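From the pipeline queue, job 12 of 40. The input is one protein chain; the requested action is below.

Action: predict structure.
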Amino acid sequence: MDWNAGIWSVIPPVIAIILALLTKEVVFSLILGILSGTIIYSLLTGLGFIGFFDTLVRLMCDKLADNTSLILFLCMLGILVALVTRAGGSRAYGEWAAKHLKGKRSAALATSALGCLIFIDDYFNCLTVGTVMKPVTDKFNISRERLAYSIDATAAPVCIIAPISSWAAAVISYYPASAGNGMTAFLSSVPMNLYAILTLFMVFWMALRKDKAEYGPMARAEYRAATTGDLGGIDSTEAEEALAKVTKKDSKGRVSDLVIPIVMLIVLSVLSMLYVGGFWNGEGMSLFDAFGNTDAGYALALSAFGTLLLTFIYYSIRRVLSFKEFFGCINDGVSSMVPACVILTLAWSISGICRDYLNTGGFVADLVQGSGMPVQILAPMIFLIACLLAFATGTAWGTFGILIPIVIAITEIAAPELTIICLSATLAGSVFGDHCSPISDTTILASTGAACNHLAHVGTQAPYAVTVAICCFIGYIVAGFTAGLGFGVCTVITLGVALVCLIGALLVLPKVWGLKETA
């Protein structure tokens, strides 16, 4: 798109960002951003009053129509989550863990492992892991703050690197079709999503080293729990009440009732992506080519439907759910995904008005090229912007919708070799901001699931998250200067430097900011 609206083209995203920072309401901010962009386009093109409404409605209808398959996938994913919970598979895992785990290290590792296993949705992850593992971690005097951190640090980070998740579906939907295949770009971004990878590494590091690795406020919380038995929890949680409502009291659930549906979803998703991508069409297409050629939204919707069908058959054979109970989960599952669908629709709309109508990315890219700013610092700068925006708004998805189209448009013109790196920086920064923000739904659900005071959770996990973020910032600086060596070499160097920085920090910080120093 050669035409752009000039300085006017940056007004919609600026309005959305500023209002999000001031009001902390991402839906309201996105709506006003969409309205302002439509008004600007209508005035510049002389469409008039009627043209404004026509453009607005047509834009939202087109965006929703283009992404119907992703909306279907999210709704069916919500139904699957409701079914697994209702069948008692999550609770069965907790009962198994309580019987077989013998120490603090094994309890912490089992909590982290369950957090990584439930990668299809962060809401499901937070409420399930917390409610299921709380009795186990209580048994070994693990503080509720520590449990909340383990939940929060495996929820969004594992979802943002899993290609079969609600988060992956959202990211793919924001990726401009003109820039290539969204699934290919997402898969390419995973090795450079430093915050997600380093956070997951840190969770297991802390679990393996137990009390030797703790520092800052978390060290005090763990010391209190170990010496006084005060776990720092609250008496009742919304998570327990929610789980009690949807889990059968006479549940015959097994661990397999949790694992098998997830495995079926993974297998069917991979097969569906290959099928839609043309792997079996007789043209000799390779696996990578098939993934690159697939329609991720349609393939995910196809696999989710197949998983629901197989889960119905499996649960019917197992007799853990009746016919009525199975179909009763449909309404609950779809309802749980309504907020996500609303944010997605609005984010698609504002990205459409900025990209397709006003060409905001082209204008900003021209500014970057003309400013003389070194392109090597693009990735760390984008990482910081995404961090601040997601922290202030409490939503990574809203941040994706605002930044991804603009970032891709800038890098395609100013520095094509940095496109995937900057996409990874956007995703990483958004997850960090969401992870730390006290108003983030994931953060709130993590403290709710762990029965932990919310502000105590925010205060104890912040030093851990900031430690990882600093290492990521250093890594993206390295990435900017090594991008010319090729993506593979750049990834190895960047990830290596960031990981070394994190390991060094985790070895030093407990000594300089451990329990004694904090006291």
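Job complete. The radius of gyration is 23 Å.
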